[in-house]
Specification:
InterPro entries: AstE_AspA_cat, N-alpha-Ac-DABA-like, N-alpha-Ac-DABA_deacetylase. This is Deacylase. Residues 48-235 form the Succinylglutamate desuccinylase/Aspartoacylase catalytic domain. GO terms for molecular function: hydrolase activity, acting on carbon-nitrogen (but not peptide) bonds, in linear amides; hydrolase activity, acting on ester bonds; metal ion binding. The protein has helices at 63-75, 93-98, 122-134, 166-179, 194-200, 218-235, and strands at 8-9, 17-26, 36-46, 51-56, 83-88, 140-145, 151-161, 183-187, 204-212, 252-255, 262-264, 269-273, 280-281, 286-291, 301-304, 309-315, 319-320, 325-332. It is of the alpha+beta class. The protein has 2 domains: 8-254, 3-Layer(aba) Sandwich (Aminopeptidase); 258-332, OB fold (Dihydrolipoamide Acetyltransferase, E2P). Strands 7-8-10-18-16 form a 5-stranded mixed beta barrel. The protein is globular, with a radius of gyration of 21 Å. 45% of the residues are buried.
Amino acid sequence: MTEANPIRSEIDLNADGLHTGYLRLPHSVHRSAYGWIPVPIASIRNGKGPSVLLMAGNHGDEYEGQILVSQMMREIDPQAVRGQIIFLPMADFPAAEAGLRTSPLDGGNLNRSFPGDPAGTPTQVIADYIENTLLSRVQYLIDLHSGGSSLVYDGANMLAIEPRDAEERDRLHGLLTAFGLPRAFLHPPNPVHASTAARRQGAISILTELGGGGAVQAALLREARHGLLHLLGHIGVLTGPLVPARPPGETRFMRVSGSRHYVYAYERGVYEPLVELGEAVEADQPAARIHFPDTPLREPVTLHFGAAGLVVCKRATAAVQRGDCLLHLAEPDE
């Protein structure tokens, strides 16, 4: 017998109109014996049509998506919706409230916790609810990420799981083109990611990576808002004057191909990048140096790229430890 998820929604997801409230996750602590964790949620439902889960705060230190989902809640006229949009602006509320990538309650990384566990830690319970209650009722997941505190992406990017066949590829390319951000990366499925959770539930997922570095860039927000509204119109869940006539731009399709596209620190020290975001690089080209100010006269260690490609992401902070990601690449998708 499958254990029931303890989260209870304050809103009826089957009700027409705009409804806002919280998902209540019971959480008994010293401060509050009968307390609950408030995960914000909203729903706009109007007649028949597609259903979409618009999610942000999957990682709590990624702020661009939290702003965008909150904007969408306020701006979208319920009468312009054909179907349903479910809004989850702070999916991992404990992490988002603390401004951390992972939950301060259990150390859990929500986007490494699917399919979750209804009897597990708070992060596992939230993952189970998202997968088995929310994703099971939608056809699309739009999961808004950024580089967070530790990474910076080059502009606005999209990610999607590699399609399984030609029909799915055409459909996915149509969705990514409708979103219209500059780059779209295809990657293999990972069973603990929300995108694969969506696939398990029969939904198709698009994820964004919008800047990062613990900051918010106004131009990226405008571009992503434009693309998001156009995508919702392309799907058919949103109509009316809020939907732009065209996407924000053309999309370049790229691929991230495993470990050869990543550069990692192997020693603790101070990281110096030797390339810039958006730069085209070659295999064996110097990528970064690690300096050791605590060891007088020690020469820095130079790290090299394992493949050619375009620099799409780099570490935001200079202090590094062994295992930290410094840079990653993507290559054209042929």
